[in-house]
Amino acid sequence: MGTDKHNVQSYDVTSLTSLEKLEPVRVRPGMYIGSTGAKGLHHCIWEILDNAIDEISNGYGDKATVILNKDNSVTVIDNGRGIPTGMHPTKKKTGVEMVFTELHTGGKFDNTVYKTSGGLHGVGASVVNALSEWMVVEVFQNGKHYRQRFEYAMDKELKKRMPGTAVTPLEVIGDTDKTGTKITYKADKEIFSHIEYKFDVIDERLQELAFQNKGMRLELIDRRKEEEVSKEYFSERGLLDFIDYLNESKTPIHPVPILFEGEREVNGVSMYGEVCIQFTDSTTEYIASYVNNIPTTESGTHESGFKTGMTRAFKDWAKKLNILKEKDTEFEGDDLREGMTAIVRIKISNPIFEGQTKTKLGNNEAYTMMNDLSYSRFYAWIEDNRDTAANIINNAMDAALRREKIKKINDAERKKIGRGAAPLAGKIAVCTLKDPSVCEFIVVEGDSAGGSAKQARDRRFQTIMPSKGKIMNTEKQKLENVLGSEELKIFNTAVGTGVLDNYEENDLKYDKIIIMSDADVDGYHIRTLWMTYIYRYMRPLIANGHLYMAMPPLYKVYRHTKGEDVVKYAYSDDDLDKVRKEVGKGHLIQRYKGLGEMNPDQLWETTLNPESRTLQQITIDDAAKAERMVSLLMGDVVQPRKNYLYKYAEF
Length: 651
Fold this sequence. Notes:
Elements: H1 23-27, H2 29-33, H3 38-57, E1 63-68, E2 74-78, H4 95-101, H5 124-130, E3 132-141, E4 144-155, E5 160-166, E6 171-175, E7 180-187, H6 199-212, E8 217-222, E9 229-233, H7 239-246, E10 258-266, E11 269-279, E12 286-291, E13 294-295, H8 301-320, H9 333-336, E14 340-348, H10 364-384, H11 386-418, E15 440-445, H12 447-456, E16 462-467, H13 479-484, H14 486-495, E17 512-516, H15 521-537, H16 539-543, E18 547-550, E19 555-561, E20 564-570, H17 573-583, E21 588-591, H18 600-608, E22 615-617, H19 623-634, H20 638-648
Parallel strand pairs: 1-8, 12-14, 15-16, 15-17, 17-18
Antiparallel strand pairs: 1-2, 2-7, 3-4, 3-7, 4-5, 4-6, 8-9, 10-11, 11-14, 12-13, 18-22, 19-20, 19-21
C-alpha cells in the first residue's frame, strides 16, 4: 500500500528528543546501576574498582585500594599505567576528560588494550561521575602528577547545569615517581535515597576479588569513625582458598577439591575458564559464577555449559562403571549437584550481558566452551578418582529417589486440597481478593500479635498466618522431617508453589511474603529460621523478589499540643534522636517490647499499611555471603560458628 509522501508528518532529526552528554544517566539511573538504593550506591564503587582490577589483571600494577572517607566520599587507587592524559587527535580532549564525560569511551572496545575486562560498554567511570556531586581524578604518569575536577555545574557551551562537568582543566600539580590512577567522588544525595556505605558488603566483594586474582593485593580503609580501620586481602592459592572459605561450615566428602582451567577460542572469541568444586554432606548446591571478575548472580551461558558438561561426564561414567542399571531411576543434573559447592569463572574478550547491570552472561560461545571444557576435565578426573566418583554417583541416585518421594508428597497434598480438605481453615485468615499480583501473605510471630494483625489488616489483600514462635532449624533436619512439619505444611499450602525441584512460580498465590517478628533477639532468630527455610526450600521466592521482612518500630514519640497530637515512630536507636527533634520539645517516648503490645490501629499504621510501613526486601544479591552465613549459623560444624561469635558478638 502506497503513502502520499506530502501528507506524511515530517519525521527528521528535529523530531528526536536528545538528552545531552551525561544527562540520560541522571534521568534514568536505574538503567545504568540497577537502583538508587544501597545496591546502586555500592555498584558505583564496583564500576570504578572494576577498572582498577582490569588494569591489574591484564598485567599492569599489583594493588588496588578502596578508602571510605570521613565526608562520605570514596577513593579508589591503583598502581597501573594511569588513564591516558594525552590529547585525542580529533576530539581535542584529553583521555581523562573523555573517559569521565562521555558514555561509551574507554579502552574496552578494542581487544588490543585489554584482553578481557569487567567494565562493560565503557560507561562505568562516566556514569559514576554523572551521579556524583563532585569527582576528582588524579593520574600519575610520565613522572607527572595530574589532577582534574568535575562537578554537577554550569556547562559553558549548553548554558545550563550539567552532570559531570569539568570545572578545571587537566593540570600538572607536581612531579612523581609513581604510576596509576586515584579517583575520589561524592555520591549525589539528590540521586541516592540514603548514602551509607556498608563495610561488610565491600569487605565481602574485595575478599572474593582477591580469591579470583591470586597474587593481587587489595586494601580497604575506613576513615569514617574516630579510629581508622584497615584490612588487606591477598590469596596465594586462589580458588582453592575460596572453596575452603565457602565450605568452612560444611564437611567435604573428598578432601582435595577438583580444580581445572583451560583456554578455548570459539567463533573468534577467545576465552579462559577456571572451575573449582568440592562435594560436601550438605543437601543443597551452591554455585558462585563470575565473568571477568564480575559476579553473575543470575548465572548465564557459562554456568549452563559447566552444568551440562559435568552431568554428561558423570552419566557416561555411571554406565561405564556399571553403577546405573536399566531399572534404576536415572539421576538428573540437580541430583548430581546436591551438596556441591562450585566456583565457575570465565574471562571472555567481548562479554554480552543481559541487562545493563551485568548479572547474566548471554554469549553462546561461553556455553560451548564451558560444556566442552567441563566434560573433558571431569571425564579425566573420574578416571583417576573412581572410588570418589562412584560415591558421588551413588549420592546422586539417592537424591533422584528422594526427588520422586517429594513429588509424591507434594502431589498428594495438592490432591487433598483439590478434594476440598481445608488444611488452612482456622489456621490462617485468608484475604478476599484472588489476584496474586496485589495479595500479601504475612507470617506474624506469636498468637497475640497474630490476633491483633487479623483485626488490623486490610482483609481484601492481606492474609495473616500466626506462627507459634520458632519453626525448626531446617538446616539441621532431614528432608522428611521438614516436609512433615505441620507449620511448614500450612505455609507451603497457602503459598502454593511447592518446594525444591517441584517449585512452580506460576502457582504462587501472593506477590509479597512478609515475615513479621519483634525487633528483639528472639524476633531476629525467628526471621533467620524462616529465611533459612525459604533459602533452602523455596529459593526462587528470594531470587524473584517476593520475600520481605516487616520493620516494626521500636519507639513511639508523641506530644499533645492544643488542637492536635503529633505522633511519630522510630525504627532504630539511631532514628530516635532525629524523630525526637521532629516532634519537638515536651515529647513523650513509648518503647515497644513487641508486636503484641500494639493495638490494631498502631499495628496497621506502623507495620501493615503500605502507605506508611517500612519493608526490607531480602535479595540474593550477595549469594556467597548468604550461603556461607546460613551454613555457619545454622549448620552442624561448631568451631567456625564459635570463631565467628568470638570475633563479632558483643558480650
